[in-house]
Amino acid sequence: MKKSAVILLLATLMASLFSVNILAISSEGDSSEIPYTTHNYILADNDIAAASKAVYKTETVLTASKLGISDFAELKDISADKAGNIFLLDSKNSRIVMLNSRLKVVKEITSLKCESGEVSFAGACGIFAYNTDALYIADTENARVLEADYDGNIRKEILLPDSKLIPEDFTYRPIKLTVDSSGYLYVLSDGSYYGAILYSPDYDFLGFYGANTVSNGVLQTITRLWKSLTMNDTKRAASSSKVPYQFTDLYADQNDFIYTSTGKIPEGSQQGQIKRLSPGGKNVLNSESTVFGEEEIATVNGNLLTQNIAGVAVDDDGFIYCYDVAYGRVYIYDSECYMLAAFGGGAGSGEQDGSFSQISAIDISDNGDRIIVSDSLKESVTVFSVTEYGKKLKSARKMTLNGDYEESVPLWKEILKSDKNCQLANVGLAKAAIAEKDYSATLNYAKAGYEKKIYSQAFSYVRKAEIKENFNIIIAAVIGFAAIVIAAVAVIKKRKIILMKNAQVKMMLSAPLHPAEVFGEVKRTASGSVAIGVVIMTLFYISAILKSISSGFLFKQTGVNATNSLLVLLQTIGFIVLWTITNWGMATLMGGIGKLREIFIVITYSMLPLIVSNLIYTVFSHCLNESEGAFLSVLSVVALLYSVFMIIIGSIIIHDVSFGKFVAVTLATLVGMLILIFLGILVFILVQQTAAFIGTLSRELFFR
C-alpha cells in the first residue's frame, strides 16, 4: 500500500511539472507599412492578449516642416469639424493651424481679433470645432473660453459666471470643452472635481454636470461612521475628505450624450475610466467594471506604467476612440465596451511611425475612417486611416449591435477567415445562430467567443430537446439503475456480504460520517494509515485538476492560460504538507500533543468532502445552465465548511486542547505558513541569483 501510494504521488508530481501552458500569438496582418502590432483582448474569465489583423494603418505623420510652416512649440489639442477640416492648437505659440481634408494647410491663426484689437491665447489647452462655423478655445491662462469664427474673429468671451453654485475658492482654468448639437457648452476646468461647467446656447450658467463619484467599500463606510461618532469638532475640521477624480476630456456624440475620460487613478485597479453621461449626468455606458486600456501594470526602462486613459472621441455609430498616455496606445471600443483593437505604442519613447512619446489629444474625421493623434513631445500629428479589414469589422459589429444578425453573417465569416483571433466575430455569429434557432451552431460559436450568456441560453434549448427526444430511454435507465441498486442492497443484507474488508480503508471512509470517533481512534490506538493519506492527498490534487480542466464550459475558467497545474499542486498537496509541518511545530510550542503522523492523517482524511465535491461539480457542470449553477457553488461551499469542521474536530482531539487553544494554534499555524512561504521565496531568489552569478563568472573565466 505504501509503495503504491508513493508511486502514485510521484507520478502526479511529474505530470504537474510537465504540464506547461503555451500561448501562441500570431502577428498575422502586420506588414512593413504597419510597423506596430495591432492586438486585442480575448475576454474570457482571464483576459488574453492576442495579435490581430490591423484595423487602422498609419496614413501619414505630419510635422511642421512637412506642412511647410514654422516649428510647433507645444501641440496641446486637436479638433476636426464635420467637413473634415482639422485644427491644431499650438499652445505656446498662440497659434491655430487649420488643415483641410487633404491635410494641406489652409491658414494659420496666430491671434484672435476683437473690437479692442488682437488677443493672444498663449497657454490655451483646448480647442473645439463646432460644425463648420465656430471655434471654441479653452484659453486656460486667461481664465476664459473664446468663441471665434474660422477667420479668428471673436464672437463671445465666456468668463467664470457669478453664481452661488460656484465655491468662493474655485479657480477657473478651462482645459477641455465640447458643444452638443443644441449648442450647450461643456467646459472642464483644471483641478475641478465638480464635473463640467454647463452653459446654455445663450451662455447662461446652468450648473455643474456629471461629476465622478467617490466609491466607498465596507471598510471605508465603517471607518467614516466610527469617525462621525468619535471625532470632536477640532479633529473633524482638521481631517481630510476623499474627493472624486476630475475628468481629463469630454466629447459630445450625435445624440448629445457626453462621453468623459478620467485618466489615471493612482489607487488600485482602474475601472470605468470612460463614461457616457445622460442629460441628468448619470453614466449609461455600463462601464463601471470595464478596465479600458491595459489590464496589467508594466515596467519599461525602470519606469512603472499605469494606464492613463486621458482622451476620448466618439463617432456617429457609437464607436469610442481613446488613448493611453502611459503606453502610447490608441484603443477602439463599441457601445457594449468590447475592444475592437489596440494599436500604436511607444511607452514614452516611440520613434517609428504610428508610435508615440506622449499623446496629447485625439479626434476623428470622416466618421471614424480617420483617427488624428497629436504627440506633444515629438511635435507631430499622426493620421491613421481605416484598413479594409477595419471597415468590415466595424460594419459587421454595427449590424450586430443594431440587431441585423442575418445580414452580418457573411461579413463575420469573412472576418474569421482573415483573423481567427477575432472574438467579436464568434460572438456575432452566435447571436445570429440563436436568432435563427440553430442552437448547435450557437453552442460552437459562443464557446469559441467565450460568450457564456448566449451559450447558456442555447444550452437550455439543446438540453430540453435531447431530454424530450430520449425521454423513454432516460426513464428506463433510471428505473433500471434503481432496481439494480435495490436488488444489490437486498442481496448484501441477506447474505451478510462484507464489501470492505480492509479495516484501514473502512475507517477512512467512515471519517466524514463519524469524525470524532475516527480521529479518537487515531489518537488512542495509533490507527489510520499514512499511505492512505498520501493516496487521498493525490486524489485531492487530481480532482482539483479535473474540476479545472474538465468542467462544463459555463463553470470553468476559459482561455489558454486558465489552468495552472503547478498552482493547483501548491494549493492542494503543497497546502497539506505545509499545514502538517507548521501545525506540528506550532502545536508543540503551545502545548499541543499531536504527532506529525496524526496531524497528516487528520488533514488528509478531512479532504474527502472536497474530493467528492470536486467530482460532483465536474459531472454536473455538464448538465446545468448558468442560472442553475448556484447549486454547484453551494455544494462547493458546504463541502469546504464540512472539511474545516472535520479539521477542527480532529485537531482538538489529537492535540487534546480546548476550542480557544485550537484557534490560537491555528492562527499561529497560518502565520507560520506565511513565514515559510516568504522564506522559500527568498531562498529561491538567492539560489537563482547565485546560479546567475556562477554562470556569469564561468563565462568571464572562459573568455579570458
What labels describe this entry?
single chain, 704 residues, alpha+beta, 4-stranded antiparallel beta sheet, 18 helices, 29 strands, 20% strand, elongated
Biggest sheet layout: 4 strands, antiparallel
Q: Give the overall average pLDDT.
A: 85
Rg, Å, rounded: 33 Å
Low-confidence stretches: 13-33, 216-223, 236-243
What does this structure look like?
It is elongated, with a radius of gyration of 33 Å. A 4-stranded antiparallel β-sheet has the order 3-29-28-27. The chain is α+β, with helices and mostly antiparallel strands and 704 residues long. Helices cover 41% and strands 20% of the residues. It is built from 18 helices and 29 strands.
Question: What order do the helices and strands come in, and which of them pair?
Answer:
Blueprint: H1 2-17, E1 39-42, E2 48-51, E3 56-62, H2 64-67, E4 75-80, E5 86-90, E6 95-99, E7 105-109, E8 112-114, E9 117-119, E10 126-130, E11 134-139, E12 144-148, E13 154-158, E14 174-179, E15 185-189, E16 196-199, E17 205-209, H3 218-230, H4 233-238, E18 249-252, E19 258-261, E20 274-277, E21 298-300, E22 303-305, E23 309-314, E24 320-324, E25 329-333, E26 339-344, E27 359-365, E28 370-375, E29 380-386, H5 388-401, H6 405-418, H7 423-435, H8 439-448, H9 452-469, H10 471-495, H11 503-510, H12 515-525, H13 530-550, H14 565-589, H15 596-605, H16 608-620, H17 630-655, H18 659-703
Antiparallel strand pairs: 1-2, 3-29, 4-5, 5-6, 6-7, 8-9, 10-11, 11-12, 12-13, 14-15, 15-16, 16-17, 18-19, 19-20, 21-22, 23-24, 24-25, 25-26, 27-28, 28-29
Helix pairs in contact: 1-13, 5-6, 5-7, 6-7, 7-8, 8-9, 12-17, 13-14, 13-15, 13-16, 14-15, 14-18, 15-17, 16-17
